[in-house]
Amino acid sequence: MENFDEENYIYDLISEGEHQQLDFKFEITNARKIAKTLVAFANTDGGRLLIGVKDNGRIAGVRTAEEYYMIEAAASVYCKPEIEFESFNRKISGKTVLEIVINPSVKKPHLAKDDSGKWLAYHRVMDENQLADYILLNVWRRATRKKGTFIKYTEREQELLEYISKTGSVTLTELVRHFRWKKRHIQNMLVNLVAFKVLTIDFNEKEAQFEIINEQE
User: How do residues 103-140 score in pLDDT, each as one tens digit?
Assistant: First the structure.
């Protein structure tokens, strides 16, 4: 690309600080550990890893080509399905910053293999990778099914929606406490209502909040 200024591009990214679509890594020493971040980006809105940048935004530069191969191993060996990514070596004042770009995936949920060998799904919330819960996992799975899915809209769904409408937003814990129905039953209702875009999930609180979409309309 003509007139592309790599230094300004990287400095502009760093000035944003770490957030939902941007993470800094001083170095990559563990492919299994970085797989969690790759999965979280792919399962959410995509994002960028800047390798060779400290948490405070100072550019240290990557030291060896092993950084790239660690990412490659993480994406192919420790992520399931494999994560696709782009990589760019950005030259900044004689140092190299490795930029890894991950797009939001249509194959979610992607899983990362942890130290015990268990495959787990993560998503990105602000600047953190969080373990995906039962509801989010099943919303993703519902979205990737090839065949259409039908749900029964019962009196209980109506009661649930009326309560959420009245409260504005509500957690799963509050719903279980209020209705005294089985937790799994409420979870499955929430999966359906989120999958069919009746409800949205806000993960910015300590516990996920469920809200009605476009309630005012």
Answer: 999 999 999 999 999 999 999 999 999 999 999 999 99
Task: Give the global pTM.
Answer: 0.90
Alpha carbon distance 52, 123 (integer Å): 23
Which fold, 6-127? 3.30.950
Instruction: Name 182's Cβ contacts closer than 8 Å, sequence gap at least 6.
Output: none
Report the alpha-carbon distance of residue 139 to residue 133 in Å, rounded.
10
Residue boundaries of the structural domains of the chain = 6-127, 135-212
CA pair distance 26, 11, nearest whole angstrom: 15
Helices (H), 180-217: 183-195
Domain 135-212 is in which class? mainly alpha
Give the whole-angstrom CA distance, residue 160 versus residue 25: 43
